Backbone:
């Protein structure tokens, strides 16, 4: 096998009380990539569709992660990469992570899997760092492993796969505005009240337990963010209105996807998710701001060959 | 049945990264109580052994929780309570919680269980509040339910039972010193760095996952306290030495039991626990401070009839 086509999914990082450590994986929203084994040594980006991204390997997220992996091997051949980008950069649902994960996953498949998924994520971190200026894995881990993940530490990389109930769906609204990562970071407090921190880890421990026990009511009771949402939600127009109508329509909880501007709403069952999507969509249509909607099952597989 | 004898166990609250929300239950260390249904209305403490505690119902922790339950019913009889106190007040392993839980559990058994365990814990909170000047359930919940518990909220009371591996043991050292609760509280910072808070909830989420999956190595990796231990450990003589020898002897992790002065060490297997106990004991013998040691399996049942 010299050529492979893969699907690299969108992801949601943070998940309310799981700020900076938790993420989950989407189905049906993601990039496609073709990885081709070629005689010429090195890594080349040969085709990009969907968004205007750099072709130069060292400036392309998928290229940088691919290079990190390539340089760890001693191969007498190379790879060409074609990118069919569907996840808009800056949307907050792991666009750069999908690129970073896709290239190394595809190469690994063509090479008969010399690396495990944690090792592949280590390479992908190098690509993610190009986009986000820091080494983190909140979106990489769910894109690579699927389902819900907890990044216990980045160095050494320690990823936990948290089980989740089968009938869990997510609704994403992506308002077409830009939030600068630097602004989303600067708005966070350096210190937080101990009481808020306790609330956050109580909710986070409860969320992990709720996912393990497929307890939807407890997922709902745990999806609160006492620490980050009060600050970052100010950067997203009509955030509280979206959250309100989502909960009224039956969502278990809503929160900021990554550093925004996308907002996720977790739901029990597809019918509820559709209703939540419609309610959010109807409400946001009045704001005059363009937006996209996605409804997706939680994707338990992660990146895959198609 | 007009008389019942119960065992009300010692407990460890906080559990490193689970500050203020998590606790677990001990076996073999606890109080005994006799609850007797009598014609005379009201609640009376008729016998106390072990430690010098008030006989007046309204001033006795077991009496206050019993009264809270008694007043919620309309009974034409009353209860006498005998207390055989084994858990030293102020030791940090839930002495007052054992008293508060024991009386209401025993009465509930004699009345053929009109209340569930969460409701009983609500009554016990009133007794605990007499001892600790605030309404909390970190020790009550594990004493009542057994195993590991997560108190998600006190008002309304929401207790989660977290499963735990079968071969988990705890070693307790109780240095015979007094730590004033007011001092243990005053030493805590009002605000903490966001980065420490993130570390704490990452570890706490990991601990919940580790308990669910019986992953001893991950329990070990998660038993860290980035927030409270650096402050409160200063109040416990030779704290870091105890922790060091416990880890060297094979403990998964050590931390402050409640607000101290007791120190707990969780261990995989009885043999390791015995070795850890011996190492701590040998080390502490040199300090000139009197101490008690306990080795106990995690008690999955909680308070029980004997």
Residues:
């Amino acid at each position: 096998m010299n050529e492979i086509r893969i699907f690299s999914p969108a992801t949601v990082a943070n998940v309310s009380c799981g700020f900076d450590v938790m993420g989950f994986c989407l189905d049906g929203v993601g990039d496609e990539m073709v990885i081709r084994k070629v005689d010429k040594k090195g890594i080349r980006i040969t085709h990009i569709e969907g968004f205007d991204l750099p072709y130069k390997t060292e400036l392309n997220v998928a290229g940088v992660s691919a290079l990190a992996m390539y340089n760890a091997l001693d191969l007498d051949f190379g790879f060409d990469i074609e990118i069919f980008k569907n996840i808009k950069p800056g949307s907050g649902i792991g666009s750069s992570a999908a690129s970073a994960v896709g290239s190394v996953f595809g190469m690994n498949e063509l090479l008969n899997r010399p690396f495990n998924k944690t090792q592949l994520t280590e390479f992908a971190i190098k690509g993610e760092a190009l986009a986000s200026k820091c080494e983190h894995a909140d979106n990489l881990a769910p894109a690579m492993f699927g389902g819900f993940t907890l990044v216990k530490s980045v160095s050494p990389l320690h990823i936990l796969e948290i089980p989740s109930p089968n009938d869990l769906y997510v609704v994403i609204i992506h308002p077409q505005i830009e939030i600068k990562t630097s602004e989303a970071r600067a708005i966070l407090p350096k210190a937080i009240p101990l009481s808020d921190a306790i609330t956050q880890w109580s909710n986070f421990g409860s969320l992990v337990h709720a996912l393990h026990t497929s307890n939807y009511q407890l997922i709902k009771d745990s999806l609160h963010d006492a620490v980050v949402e009060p600050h970052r939600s100010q950067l997203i127009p009509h955030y509280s209105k979206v959250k309100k109508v989502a909960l009224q329509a039956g969502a278990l909880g809503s929160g900021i996807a990554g550093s925004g501007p996308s907002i996720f709403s977790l739901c029990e069952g597809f019918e509820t998710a559709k209703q939540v999507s419609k309610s959010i969509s109807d409400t946001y249509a009045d704001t005059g701001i363009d937006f996209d909607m996605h409804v997706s099952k939680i994707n338990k597989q992660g990146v895959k060959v198609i």
In short: The CA atoms of residues 169 and 270 of chain B lie 6 Å apart. The longest helix of chain B spans residues 194-212. The radius of gyration of chain B is 19 Å. The domain at 3-162 of chain B is CATH 3.30.230.10 (Ribosomal Protein S5; domain 2).
